[in-house]
């Protein structure tokens, strides 16, 4: 039990956020593809994504003598007639890591990822990223250091074809992988969808209508097969069959009402490999530039082995463009069929998103992590520095 608790806390605290923030979609009423080159969000930003956050800060750069620097930096992220696009995310964090009876305040790098996208033709985009803070000795099963892809789209109104090494669409994409919907409550491996999860695969995406997003793809299973469960003898067994392809389907509806003041999003996804599947259903709403509401239910089923049901509800209030407060309530329920054990976990979070200057974010937060099968709970604060471009 001691090793299990230590492992759970370690995984919770060094999670690697690296993706687009779904709250912003509800605060602005934009689909992921409106701000990112990747249809599912994350990575390099396009024109709208660039201009949406390049001047947001509590301080004016001119007031502290940085106007010329920011004017040069913030002019564009696209070069050579928009055929070459750059970006990066740098994240550094302090948190308490270690066993419950003797945790230590630790400072560590989580992400140092440059993004590059090349568009030699209007219909072709090549892109990729690499996380220089990736450590294979501390990585989660299925986590990878790099991504690489190509996107072919003859016209903006037509479906796009994407192939390479990237993450399949599974539920919502969060920039915080401490969320319980991406975990399995209970003993053994707890990280279901790891940070920087990627597989070789190919998919078709359709974004031709403002109110609809569709995706269908097939993927290798080698990365997900690194994720294991323990059989009745206590031996680790791959969660999926790496010799069989995985498939994923997703659909999302988007609507805006009352002169674009109310934003709604309803979506679902289904991921399957052999006798294992993940089903997600989410509903989000937002008041433009004021409030976002996120909710998701995610089920997993490993036939006759394990089932889980995870829930998330989160609210983000935008006090200022550069200051947001977030509250999140989560619950993870796991039914270990083999060992006939239920595992229930709750997590509560309150935090801030503070942008002191453009391209710089501070994220202080306070978490309570409560495992119903163990006495007591863990509570702590963490602070993350995020520099992006």
List the helices and strands and how they pair.
Blueprint (H helix, E strand, L loop, with lengths): L1 H12 L8 H7 L3 H4 L11 H7 L13 H7 L4 E2 L4 E14 L6 E18 L2 E7 L15 E7 L7 E7 L32 E8 L5 E8 L8 E3 L5 E3 L7 E12 L4 E12 L2 E12 L3 E12 L3 E15 L2 E14 L4 E17 L2 E12 L6 E11 L1
How would you describe what is shown here?
The chain is mostly beta strands and 389 residues long. The protein has one domain. The protein contains five helices and 19 strands. The protein has a 16-stranded antiparallel barrel with strand order 2-3-4-5-6-7-8-11-12-13-14-15-16-17-18-19. A two-stranded antiparallel sheet has the order 9-10. Strand 11 and strand 12 form a beta hairpin. The relative contact order is 0.16.
